[in-house]
Amino acid sequence: MTDDGPAQRGYGRVLLKLGGEMFGGGAVGIDPEVVATVARQIGEIVADGVEVAIVIGGGNFFRGAELQQRGMDRARGDYMAMLGTVMNCLALQDFLEREHGIDTRVMTAITMGQVAEPYIPRRASRHMEKGRVVIFGAGTGMPYFSTDTTAAQRALEIGCEVVLMAKAVDGVYTADPKTTPDAKLFEHITHREVLERGLKVADATAFSLCMDNQMPILVFNLLEEGNIARAVGGEKIGTLVSTPAAEEL
After folding, report:
1. How much is the pTM?
2. Nearest Cα to 6, choosing from 165, 202, 162?
3. Where does UMP bind (predicted)?
4. Is 20 assigned to a binding site?
5. What average pLDDT does the chain have?
6. Domain locations in the chain as residue ranges
């Protein structure tokens, strides 16, 4: 482990991963105050010319794995969760366009033409070049894959420089800070160390995908006002997860 890793820098094209639980404010459904806060922070970086894509989870509505524990078919539960992510996407789109005048496109992995465009990588990239915020819904469109993995895959496919993983904690810790008060925060850690230590930041598939393709992940606290702009601007916040060139596979 090393805490004095590579210096963070400003980014021009980013993939912001937002957890669905935060959209619900800890409850089922959507908390307009939380969505408004997130939209305001996104508006700040768009105004600075940053190209932004977003992946949102659906944990404030459904989780396929949890529904499976109650006897539901896992694949069907995952599809329900994918539809929940689309509701979050439309809510964020509304706040970005109505309150901030930011041109936004929702693109989904499951076709639903009346509310969103189908996900086409080149079209998504073109939207971003034109200054539009692109919000990806319905995960990968396949069961058994999390929205963390979706974020990694989309970031790689549309040429983002970093995955900004917004959480309700300050970054990656040696243990869960909620249950281990003396847990230490990493300033920098490699993808491999995250996987080997079994740190529960995101699912292993997402980290493996980023490790294999040298995609850095910046884990930071979304709940602190202005942190998205700080993360994009290269300020030293949260935990930078990256793989040194010597360790690339």
Report:
1. 0.90
2. 162
3. 58, 78, 140-147
4. yes
5. 89
6. 14-242
- What is the DSSP track for 76-124? HHHHHHHHHHHHHHHHHHHHHHHHH---EEEEESS--TTT-EE--HHHH
| Residue at 95: amino acid letter | F
Q: Is 40 annotated as a binding residue?
A: no
CB 107 within 8 A of CB 117: yes
Say whether 144 counts as a known binding-site residue: yes
Helix (H/G/I), strand (E/B), else coil: 156:
helix
Q: Per the annotation, does 141 bind a ligand? A: yes
Ligand-binding annotation for 59, yes or no, is yes
pLDDT tens-digit map of 170-210: 999 998 888 888 999 999 999 999 999 988 788 889 999 99
Smallest Cα–Cα separation from 138: which of 110, 104, 105, 106? 110
> Measured between alpha carbons, how far is 116 from 104 in angstroms, rounded to an integer?
11
State the burial class of residue 198 (Cβ atoms within 10 Å of its Cβ: 0-12, 13-18, 19+): exposed
Residue 46 CA to residue 32 CA, distance in Å, equals 21
Digit-coded pLDDT (tens) for 60-90? 876 666 667 777 888 888 898 899 999 999 9
Give the model confidence (pLDDT) of 197-249 as tens digits: 988 788 889 999 999 999 999 999 988 889 999 999 989 899 999 988 655 54
**E strand or H helix that includes residue 56:** strand 51-56
How far from the centroid of its chain's Cα atoms is residue 44's Cα? Answer: 18
Domain 14-242, CATH: 3.40.1160.10
